[in-house]
Amino acid sequence: MTRLEAAKVARRTLLTGIAGLPLAAILADPRLTAMAAETTEMVSIKTSGGREVKAALAVSAATPAPTVLLVHEWWGLNDEIKTMAAEFAKEGFLALAVDLYDGKVASAPADAETYMKGVDSAQAEETLESWIAWLRADSRGNGKVGTIGWCFGGGWSLNASITTPVDATVIYYGRVERSADDLKKLKGPVLGQFAEQDQWINPAMVQGFEANLKAAGKSAEIYSYSANHAFANPTGDNYDKEDAQTAWARTLEFLRKNLA
To answer: Which own/partner pairs from 162-167 qualify as long-range (CB within 8 Å, at least 24 positions apart)?
Structure first.
């Protein structure tokens, strides 16, 4: 058996071992999260501007599959986000978790804030646009692409869909201060998942987003949970199991409906 064949066998074994576990249980255990992250494959492309960018790819057992582009939290492309890509693949999607930090991953809030503030918006848009084009062309996908992101990534899920219209957009407590004119550029419907106790992505911002979506004539499902920011992350202090499970079920239903 060659090294490549052995690696494929090991990857299948890892995937089988955690396949039956709930998502929250995997994300709450660093060892299991690392195992799940190992089932993804790092891929790279050149952007339209010539930069090399990387992402973690997880492929559904059945293809062609509906396709989802994931954008990480302010921590970067860590094992948790790679695990989310693996989970989407288990649910029947071709999933790609992009990296907007050029390989940097934070473990402390101060570093995460530094990395987040260091993102060049034009380059991030170019990165996302290039990956969306790559996903649309990949034979393992069905040609339809949705975006999803959390926190920092939630805002960039929306930004990506405005820059390069996609078939569905999911936002978990991300910054959504965009005008009605900007939102008119959206192609597909929007699913927004927000937290009533969030002091950063606060109710006033969410209400303004809803009003601008309506003014732009866009289809949207906006939910506000009695939780705080990052309520869907089992590794954080604000994790709310019930709301996280409800939000995840709504996410899968929404994406299946709009990417079929």
So the answer is: 162/186, 163/125, 163/128, 163/129, 164/128, 164/129, 164/132, 164/133, 166/69, 166/132, 167/258, 167/259
